[in-house]
Amino acid sequence: MEQLEYQEGRTELAEFGEFPLIERLTDGFTPCNKSTVKGVGDDCAVIGTGDKLTLVTGDMLVEGVNFDMMYTPLLHLGYKAVAIGISDIAAMNGTPRQVLLNIAVSNRYSVEALEELYAGVRLCCQRYDVDLVGGDLATSRAGMVISVTVVGEADANRITYRSGAKLHDLICVSGDLGSAYSGLLVLEREKVTYKANPDFKPDLDGYDYVLERYLKPEPRMDIVQFLREKDIVPTSMIDVSDGLASELLHICHQSQCGCEVYEERLPIDYQTSRVCSEMSSNMLPVSNALNGGEDYELLFTIGQQDYEKIRDSQEVHIIGHITEKGSPAVMVTPQNTTIELRAQGWQQNG
Amino acid sequence: MEQLEYQEGRTELAEFGEFPLIERLTDGFTPCNKSTVKGVGDDCAVIGTGDKLTLVTGDMLVEGVNFDMMYTPLLHLGYKAVAIGISDIAAMNGTPRQVLLNIAVSNRYSVEALEELYAGVRLCCQRYDVDLVGGDLATSRAGMVISVTVVGEADANRITYRSGAKLHDLICVSGDLGSAYSGLLVLEREKVTYKANPDFKPDLDGYDYVLERYLKPEPRMDIVQFLREKDIVPTSMIDVSDGLASELLHICHQSQCGCEVYEERLPIDYQTSRVCSEMSSNMLPVSNALNGGEDYELLFTIGQQDYEKIRDSQEVHIIGHITEKGSPAVMVTPQNTTIELRAQGWQQNG
Q1: B346 in contact with A at a CB cutoff of 8 Å?
Q2: Chain pair A-B, CB pairs under 8 angstroms
Q3: What is the CATH architecture assignment of A42-155?
Q4: Which residues of chain B are within 8 Å of residue A346 when distances are taken between CB atoms?
């Protein structure tokens, strides 16, 4: 019998961040098929040979890590599982078409509970014209694990990678940042109170926006549509799943450039600011925007020539610009202080 | 705070089999994209519009349910995760091209352990010319969960569904049946002995074939190649992951037909028979073949006109034929008794 926990030369997962670990594990996998246009390292894999290419992306949601059954309605969870996959397709400037769901559940869940989850899946599929085409149902010993694969398509000449940002390009972000994490903070606060006193009735009035942002995110297919209508092909794009800082660093790393964003330009909703001030006098809304994650907004760069096409949009905010190779990724404060951006580690975002 | 375990009208998962449950959950999902050629209900989804179509399949492996870390080397586990996805592509008569892996792990695993798992993934990718193109790494609170998505391609006129079997077609199966489950039985037996006495050194000599069948299955891409060389397009096909009985019932259900297979024709390896006789005088090798599962052989039907092309193959066995609509799926014993086939339930194969 082999015991498979290595004793000697053991390196803990916590010593690595998620992305360096993925890089290490997938190092040396060299594609051999001509249909593999893009492998590991972007929001989607890109597959095919013609003018229309296929996009494929996979995400995993683990109970107790990525969602808490105490405050996550199954309807919302099903919706969100599909939505975050669609967001990866949006981040490549593509159109989602099909979804496959693999779900592991324990017998703690009833058939009716799974039906509720699938009702959420169906709502999201209908909202974004996506077909459920397959998946596996497995038994779990502990919590629920959802693995989602979304397949999409894109014109070869419109696919947008993380790697195309150029010097002086404008950095744009849709919607607002930090609100999903603020929603999570509210839910966690109410959970603690409820656990201390089960008679407590949580009052979630006035937090509707941040709660919906966390529990039922909408992938920004409207932005993909907007870019098409305005005839803009971003030079690079990524969706904001791990916080603005982490995503900016991905773009800078893969485009071999630096960047400068302006704190006062970061779009932050008033509910996000309100939650921060309630939580602690030390909690700054800008921290939630930089590091909170799960906003599923689109972060992208465009050439200066496209500025006029985008300047009047209410949904797209220009927050900075790309700087030259070798420069750091920084945020400039209203006091003109420059802060170097750092990605959050493994612990926060799994 | 919503509590999400429903009390009223609760239906236990155990009341359903896996497949009826999937049918119930996905009922009413109607494809809306013209690129969705085949949705839920076969070994793969089929996507695309031209002569070359894309195949996509998803599988999930859960620690403690689908594999036991006590006797599953991580190298083998990584290999097997990819292999079972490739087997689904083979079952559609297609060619595998890309794989995405989503893995959830707890900090019980080290970086070196994950590297071992990925080394197995790499071996299988190299063996079958498949490119690793993406995936997610998530944190798990308990055991490891692996979700694998394999993408393949097939000529539209060669794709083989479960639904095309016709009256009088010959039923064929590759390799042998029941050996993987026999390997699992040996491993479970040694585990019990080891747990009772940790000084015990398990003796696995003489079980090499059944152990390899369980721990490191090979998808039958050689059979897909053989069919191509012989210019045979099966009328229906499925891979044997849940046991011959379950797969025959899938084909009969979806092709709206019955079937008759002959017990003495079922290919069973001598190691499989030996394990059965060691385990119990009541354990019949034919039970392992019918219900054991995880063989990852190909079960397919061909028209009578292709009989000559296949009769001399050492790797393909003709085990019976398709009977008319409304007939049951049966096995005929050497004593000429007819036994109706039943699928195993949820518990056995998760």
Answers
A1: yes
A2: 300
A3: 2-Layer Sandwich (3.30)
A4: 139
Q: For residue B170, give the DSSP letter.
A: E
Looking at domain B43-155, which CATH architecture does it have?
A: 2-Layer Sandwich (3.30)
Contact of A104 with chain B, judged by CB distance below 8 Å, is answered with yes
- SS3 at position A168: coil
Is B131 strand, coil or helix?
strand
How many Å apart are CA A327 and CA A305, to the nearest integer? 23
User: How much is the pTM?
Assistant: 0.94
Partner B, chain A 116-145, Cβ-Cβ below 8 Å = 118, 122, 125, 129-143, 145
Residue B147 touches chain A, beta carbons under 8 Å: yes
Domain boundaries, chain A: 42-155, 170-349
User: Is residue A334 packed enough to be buried (19+ CB in 10 Å), middle (13-18) or exposed (0-12)?
Assistant: exposed
A-chain residues near B40 (CB < 8 A):
132-135
Are B152 and B54 a contacting pair, CB within 8 Å?
yes
Locus of tokens 């420069």: A327
Give pLDDT tens digits along chain A (350 positions): 444 444 567 899 888 877 888 889 998 888 999 999 999 999 999 999 989 999 999 999 999 999 999 999 999 999 999 999 999 999 999 999 999 999 999 989 999 999 999 999 999 999 999 999 998 899 998 789 999 999 999 999 999 999 999 999 999 999 999 999 999 999 999 999 989 988 888 878 899 999 999 999 999 999 999 999 999 999 999 999 999 999 999 999 999 999 999 999 999 999 999 999 999 888 899 999 999 999 999 999 999 999 999 999 999 999 999 999 999 999 999 999 999 998 764 433 33
Write down the CATH number for the domain with range A170-349. 3.90.650.10
CB within 8 Å of chain A, chain B residues 173-212: 190-191, 194, 202
| Residue where the block lists tokens 């891979």 | B239
Residues of A in contact with B45 (CB under 8 A): 98, 100, 133-134
Our measurement of the distance from residue A69's CA atom to the centroid of its chain's CA atoms, rounded to an integer in Å, reads 20
